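Trying the structure run again after the queue cleared.
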Amino acid sequence: MIHLVFQHADVETLQKSFELDETLSGPVLEIRDEYAVGPLFDPYTDEGIEARRTWWREVLSAGEQEGSVEEVLVNDQETVADLVSKLEADPKETAWIWVAQNKHDVSGYYWLISQLAPFQGRILILFLHNLPFISTKGTIFYPVNLFQIPPREFLKAKKLARAISAGEFENDAEEWKRLCGEDRWVRILEGGKKLAQYSADFYDQQLLGFLNADWQKASRLLHQFMQKAPHTTGDAYLLWRIKKMIEDQRIEYQGTLGAPKDFEVRLKAVAQIEIPY
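Done. Tokens:
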């Protein structure tokens, strides 16, 4: 079997479970892009793929990745091509897609599944939706991410594997097509596999809520946001939005506009108006 996950930390967690159950053993492929944000127009065409990569170049060059952007750009198309090659070479081979209850995994699932319909019956899903697991401390919890699950609990999780039906392939492909056609750049999970989409500035108002008239490091703003905001996303996207708001003169900055530790931000000061007497 071939395993597919959507977060880097999931890879090591899943591999550790193989030590407890050899029947789970197999290569683990990671879909690396963050499909919960960014443009999705024609995501499988050369034009659409390059448009998304161009956007990521802009996002990543806004922060600490400057100078090494090309090195960190992902190539999920190559990963899928490798998977398809393995499935075509061995008719008995199967692929297990691990999906946790978060927008990152679900968005990645939609992107992936729309390319695997020819292998119906050999593509299995393990959707950890509102399922209880036992933590390392022995308490019951409901994991949001796959990497939160102790390796021993994967022995239970594997029993959830089921083949994706023909109806699911059709319906999920249609849902993904609809999402791609809306031209909105932020996806939020509303439950199950239901994604709602919003404009690129979705997180702006929440970021502004952590600012006031006092200067604070952009890194502190990001930390506060990640700890307290009801919806969060990756630092790179948030830093890109902060710099967009600076460009739009919605917030002020001082320092070197690069990595979040190098500059401070505050709400834009309201100019005082002199009232003649």
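The radius of gyration is 21 Å. Worth checking whether this holds up in the mutant runs.
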